[in-house]
């Protein structure tokens, strides 16, 4: 069932629509049930309700809504499909797709690819192998057979190429591949343009006896190609060719771009009725025309719509002619030397092989130069003279320079712009009164009018023009005294220019000035090209590197990796040599897709041995409507629910509903705001948690020596001290932190307790350096050698722990030390302590010596700044502080004296307080004075 | 959608047995609750134990110049130098008629209120009965019991009610005599003219009435929206409103107007008219009625002097 490009998979379900009137009748009969309410003051209410409202029926729009709902559901169940397409090929053994991806397929490539993808999709449904061949690709491309998925992948990778299609070769390969797949369907997806060898190609392709042929060609060939660009005398002519068979008159816009891609000129090309070719003229100044790098057809996004231009249309070929062959040995004196240097950057210079004028001039003219430079050539042989005159009349520019020969020769009216006096004029020198003349401002009428006159140029010698009425307008440059330096005149379509000085620096220094180059360039720009030359290019036979390529969609792009240098004389456009510019910045050769005389012929449908059906290019627009219809039905259902709620007054009566929704919404927003938080949390750095942990509370730190018993004692000691601190002072330390001095961050801890264990490995230099840095930056290390009673009575002997301590300290910057003096802050920072016992008694506590602190009798505490970075004891503090989980002391003091343990604890408190408060206790001496001042 | 109002199932059936049983189940609860409420109020309730017109001796007090000489108790005065007056206890037999509306409309209870109107009315009346009998008043229920005085007045009244036959929607108020107080708790939703016509005989008898209008908040606020069918619990009449919220203002005006009219009529007669909403605590109404009654008592005392 197909109806308005809508088809139904299950059309019989549409009979359900008949039920609609019944539904309507039912809906009309059952009104929404009113909310039933008991209401005692009914009599009062009855006075308000004047008439009894008895709606037997639901409102008409609600009925309509529900009817639509029912109809939508029925329609959706019938499974409608918009823009259905029939399967093109089915039931064949295999499918071969030959797809043209040449330049002409670029504009609607997506449609072509979609068509191919559709065919492959059908093949997948039938589980057929697929042969996929692209005609513009290399001949050795892989064509399959693939399974459908691979073919789809390859198709997705396929792109249109800016080259012509190569049907014979590719079709041949497909035919070979199809030999193994008899009964295959062949889908020929052409670009609609004929190429040479098409007939044979199709014969070959269809030779295997395909089961079915699908033929796809564009319905209309709309490609327009820029086939020619000619820089003629008056205008730049662009020729465009459109595909034959397009009979309607048509106008296209052609544009010209410069090397930066800027659009510098435009013209309209009009195709007459039935005409396949049209020409447009861009009438722009000559200088601008020489800037053209490419011409294109507006709106043609394919490679043939753009045509690149090269020196053939832009650069001038200049023939050089000189008679002073003998001077070649001394190049600086050669009359052509400065001319060559000046012209070579922007012109092709051609020199005749023979100095003989009768041979040289025809040879030059054969090469169709735009300009012929004659350096001091006097009289020409008659045949050569005739040829030169004809050439000038035909548009050539003859640039002559003066010299002794010219000065001595007779006046040749046809080849000189002005009559010359015989001989030359000498300015300055031994026999002249005159001074060498500088160059005056260029006349405003001449071609040099906008050039800056060379101030530093002086002319010593020149040929003089006979005064004549038109001498002024023929003068392109004058000397300061008004005599012409450069004269020019138009002859026919060409012109003749004469420099009244020699081309070398003998008569003047003009040839070695910058202005000479400018003037020559201007003259060359004024010249007209005399036709393209087939073979010659600047590099002369060498292969040219790709410079700018035309992409498949008609843009100038950098070359792709597969572009190869263009061999001389190779004009075939292939994938290796895609169209574009070859060469380098200095000079390029245009490699264009189409020859100037190319025609775009529509491809005729070939004779086929099998049933051939045409398919169209186009996107797959099939769209199942089941989902949207169900969605619409669902929306209507929601609408109906809302309407019923509204009719029943539920929307107002249920503020809780709104509150619930608001709460849900708030929860959702809250969640959304929480989510980034968790995301942020994940980006914390490693070890950050430990760092935060370490600094959020003051923690006692001890060095992990690696000796388990020492470490356990240290930990228990720190725990005991922490407990004691918490009990006696305002400080409530956190868990003791065991630190690895080699890796852990030390700066978090105010005090590090280091039980020196001779059995443990000596800390590495880096670790010592870290400790040093820690001490320098304000931390304190409490070294405990725990060897008070193991050193023996011999003061010169040292225990292993002491030795190890000395070893450690040797790597540290240890300040001068002293035992804690009586008036040190340590003795008063919390408890008043005369000594600092630990498990042992008697070892002094060494601290940084406060050498400079004055001992004042009026103060009980020595005043000094800073906190000692190092403390050393041998009393085994940790052993005295150590407690177990139940709070009982772990180790007995030596001697076993509870008071000693208490003192040890107090020593620990004093040390910690000293660490945390610094020398603040020494300021307590001011308290009496402060109190006195406060009036206490 | 939950309904706003419902008919309390307790007395929904006309079946006498079911109702009696349900009432029996209810009354102890109510009595307890009434006792609790009365205990709350008793502090502010000055009983009748004071001087006044009565038979029994109350106190001797010094004679004050200007009092009737005949009131001097000479026998007491003869004992010493002072003159004494014998006060007697005020024993004015005050009868308070209590009545709560038993009509089906009182069974209404909306979700805004914790109890039905009938329940609240009964609680109030029994609480009053408790209070009154505690202070020695005679209480009665028109159509159920004659005035009686007992300490356990509330219990007796409840028992009487339990065993009473079908209660008339509007009891005969003929037995109510002059100087009696009548406490009427009901919703007074009938047309004002009918209510006035019914209560007019009280006025003509010279009794003083205290009307307690028990109102459900839903009846006053009219929170109905949307298409609603209203049914009268008394008559079974049904009324459908297409969009009930549009009626709210008009209805509320009429509802308040009825109350105002009734209240002003009561005021004119010197009666009290208390409006009590069932979502408020019962004690509130009790205090209000108590105030109205005690003010009246004070007035009567002044008059009796």
Overview of the molecule:
The complex is a heterodimer of chains A (936) and B (305). With 936 residues, chain A is of the alpha/beta class. Chain A has 6 domains: 2-82, no CATH class; 94-220 and 602-621, von Willebrand factor, type A domain (Rossmann fold), CATH 3.40.50; 224-312 and 547-591, no CATH class; 318-526, Rossmann fold (3-Layer(aba) Sandwich), CATH 3.40.50; 655-683; 690-926, Domain of unknown function DUF4159 (Rossmann fold, 3-Layer(aba) Sandwich). Helix content of chain A is 29%, strand content 19%. A 7-stranded mixed sheet of chain A has the order 17-16-18-19-26-25-24, with helices on both faces. In chain A, strands 6-5-7-8-31 form a 5-stranded parallel sheet, sandwiched between helices. The longest helix of chain A is centred in the C-terminal third of the chain and has 27 residues, at 655-681. Chain A is flat. The N and C termini of chain A lie far apart (111 Å). Chain B is an alpha/beta fold and 305 residues long. Chain B has 2 domains: 7-48 and 92-304, Rossmann fold (3-Layer(aba) Sandwich), CATH 3.40.50; 57-88, no CATH class. In chain B, 40% of the residues lie in helices and 19% in strands. Chain B has 8 helices and 12 strands. Chain B has helices at 16-41, 74-77, 117-134, 153-163, 192-205, 217-221, 248-269, 282-304, and strands at 5-7, 57-62, 84-88, 95-100, 108-110, 138-141, 145-148, 181-186, 208-215, 228-231, 238-241, 272-277. Chain B has a 6-stranded mixed sheet with strand order 7-6-4-8-9-12. A two-stranded antiparallel ribbon of chain B has the order 1-5. In chain B, helix 5 (192-205) links the parallel strand 8 (181-186) and strand 9 (208-215). In chain B, helix 1 crosses helix 3 and helix 1 (16-41) packs antiparallel against helix 4 (153-163). Chain B is elongated, with a radius of gyration of 23 Å. At the A-B interface, strand 3, helix 2 and helix 16 of A face strand 1, strand 10, strand 11 and helix 7 of B. Strand 3 of chain A pairs parallel with strand 10 (228-231) of chain B, so a sheet runs across the interface.
